[in-house]
Design brief:
With 173 residues, the chain is an all-alpha fold. The protein has helices at 3-34, 37-76, 81-110, 116-157.
């Protein structure tokens, strides 16, 4: 009963989160790398709070939705269980990298203690790990979409066989 709605929410949230991470990767990282280290730190201190205010709750909601979807699929024996578990694992990977690597680096970027050389190296490291987050996000999105497609297949199988293939306006007599 909850399988399809959870699969839908998981797919939407993973897609939105991944889209945000791709935007950062394609637009912001090159902009940051093109700035001077001091200019980057100033920009990051002024604007990173807004990014964090959007992406942290979005990431948490994605992790919760994917985990709930996987749990419902596994316990219910649904066809999409492997895909839902893969989506949850990949979303968990995004969260793990964020918490252990990117968030600590974000806090260092906003501190007044980094030299220009340290900033450049930390940004390089941050971007490498961010690329992994993007890949994990793409995996989560595709897997969640697969689980959603499987949820749709299961719903179709509940249609009585005499009604499969019937279209609106067909004579059922």
């Amino acid at each position: 009963m909850l399988s399809r709605p959870l699969a839908l929410v998981s797919t939407v949230l993973t897609g939105v989160l991944t889209g945000g991470m791709v935007l950062i990767d394609v637009v912001l990282v090159p902009f940051w790398r093109g700035s001077s280290p001091a200019g980057f730190r100033a920009w990051f201190a002024a604007h990173s709070g807004r990014l964090r205010a959007l992406l942290v709750p979005l990431g948490a909601a994605t992790g919760i939705a994917c985990t709930a979807s996987a749990a419902v699929r596994v316990t219910g024996g649904g066809r999409g269980a492997p895909a839902a578990v893969a989506a949850a694992a990949a979303a968990g990977g995004v969260i793990a990298v964020t918490v252990t690597v990117n968030e600590p680096a974000n806090h260092r970027f906003t501190s007044a203690t980094l030299t220009d050389r340290e900033t450049t190296e930390l940004l390089r490291r941050w971007a490498r790990w961010h690329h992994l987050r993007v890949v994990l996000g793409l995996v989560a999105t595709v897997a969640a979409g697969r689980a959603l497609a499987d949820a749709g297949d299961r719903a179709v199988s509940r249609v009585p066989s005499r009604l499969r293939g019937v279209r609106a306006g067909d004579d059922l007599a």
